Backbone:
């Protein structure tokens, strides 16, 4: 099972304003790998807040036939999504047992929980050229260092800078 994080963040490390606002993201970003990632993955794992944010965008369902799993302690009722709850390791085991092979993990708290549990293998972080000064951090506290191996960095005409890393799993201290 592979779990990938593909996320945008301000240069100072925030994924959203404190109120969840995303008005600072580019309105028409040039292609920067999202479509390629969607072609690789078979399952999207969202936290509830991120899922509700996506629903707030309106329009057509953006994930085609991909399996979408929403992690929440409360039931989720949506024709294109299924609900799961539990610890990240339990979630991964359930998904793997049902045939999932490559997860796209999205949502601040969800990413942090999966990272703390050692379940993320690849991080793709796209820095947006803006300083927010405050907001929801991309990474929260960790019980130990998480070593990364740099794979590549590329920049885009709009000023986006994207870095890809592999997570180097190390024994827990």
Residues:
């Amino acid at each position: 099972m592979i779990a990938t994080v593909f996320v945008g963040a301000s240069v100072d490390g925030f994924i959203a304003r404190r109120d969840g606002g995303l008005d600072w993201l580019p309105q028409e970003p040039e292609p920067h790998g999202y479509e390629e990632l969607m072609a690789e993955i078979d399952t999207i794992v969202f936290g509830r807040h991120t899922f509700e944010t996506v629903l707030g965008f309106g329009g057509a369902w953006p994930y085609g036939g991909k399996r979408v799993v929403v992690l929440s302690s409360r039931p989720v009722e949506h024709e294109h999504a299924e609900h799961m709850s539990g610890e990240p390791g339990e979630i991964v085991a359930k998904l793997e047992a049902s045939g999932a092979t490559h997860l796209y993990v999205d949502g601040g708290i969800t990413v942090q929980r999966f990272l703390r549990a050692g379940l993320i293998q690849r991080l793709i972080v796209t820095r947006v050229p803006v300083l927010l000064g405050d907001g929801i951090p991309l990474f929260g506290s960790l019980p130990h260092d998480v070593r990364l191996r740099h794979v590549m960095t590329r920049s885009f005409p709009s000023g986006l800078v994207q870095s890809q890393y592999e997570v180097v799993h190390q024994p827990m201290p």
User: Anything to note?
Assistant: The chain has a mean pLDDT of 93.
